[in-house]
Specification:
This protein has a domain of 154 residues: Glucose Oxidase, domain 1, CATH 3.50.30. It has 7 helices and 10 strands. Strand 3, helix 4 and strand 4 form a beta-alpha-beta unit. Helix 1 packs parallel to helix 6, helix 2 packs across helix 6 and helix 6 packs antiparallel against helix 7. The longest helix has 22 residues. The radius of gyration is 20 Å and the shape is elongated. The C terminus is likely disordered.
Length: 247
């Protein structure tokens, strides 16, 4: 198995944060625009009560509309399983159904059990899911753009390349986080311990604003003063001026 590019301590440092807080923290590094790097609103979180999903992408493309043929043969699934097993964990299966709309759900109890056994903690698909009640018992994250009752002509077409899911391009090894708010990609150039520090700083600063707003001593004048103070203390990337502050 390949070695993960982060230590367990680095991964653990960001587990306690929500996806919106991590998105705010990523903003402060100035490496991507604030309106990029996440799945759009087509992506549904089926188990919003689960803790943060965190894992490296293992990618595949599937087809559910037409049976495999000589022109578009399905892959040997055992080879795909071996490839998934060889990748560093924790892992998230990221799958693009090439049919639009999908005509079946490749993701149910079968593939959830198989991929959990291969080291995956969840699945993200531009495609369909089913067996939502059974998969919930596995504590396995499920994100999909559709829900359908049947598997259609479900077949894996290829694996190990870039895929697009709900507007987000994902490559094997990309680090993803997900919760009830959606799925977010953490850029590889951001050190996770620095990201965690920025996220904690943002949480602390936001807590000051929330406390004032819920205080019987609240006033607009105090809010203006605190907002200015928070803006001055908001984390900024080294050597760059932060262009946007989002509370």
């Amino acid at each position: 198995m390949q070695t993960a590019r982060h230590t367990p301590e680095e991964l653990e440092a960001i587990r306690k944060f929500t996806v919106p807080t991590l998105a705010n923290a990523i903003e402060t590094f100035g490496v991507i625009p604030s309106n990029e790097g996440f799945c759009d609103s087509r992506m549904r979180c089926h188990y919003p009560d689960l803790p943060l999903m965190l894992g490296y992408a293992v990618t595949a493309r599937v087809s559910t509309d037409q049976p495999p043929s000589e022109v578009r043969p399905g892959i040997v699934e055992a080879e795909y399983w071996r490839w998934v097993a060889s990748q560093p964990g924790p892992k998230v299966a990221v799958v693009q159904d090439i049919d639009n709309p999908p005509k079946g759900a490749m993701w149910g109890e079968w593939n959830a059990n198989v991929h959990k056994a291969l080291g995956c903690v969840g699945m993200v698909t531009e495609g369909a899911a089913r067996d939502l009640d059974g998969v919930r018992k596995l504590n396995f994250h499920f994100f999909s753009t559709h829900v359908l009752p049947t598997h259609g002509y479900g077949a894996f077409i290829d694996y190990g390349g870039s895929v697009r899911v709900a507007g987000l391009v994902v490559k094997p090894g990309d680090l993803l986080v997900g919760d009830m708010h959606g799925v977010l990609l953490i850029p590889a150039e951001i050190p996770l311990l620095e990201l965690a520090r920025a996220a904690q700083q943002i949480d602390d600063l936001e807590s000051e604003v929330f406390a004032l707003c819920q205080s019987p001593d609240f006033s607009i004048e105090k809010l203006i003063e605190l907002d200015r103070s928070v803006a001055e203390r908001w984390p900024r990337p080294t050597g760059k001026e932060r262009l946007l502050r989002t509370i």
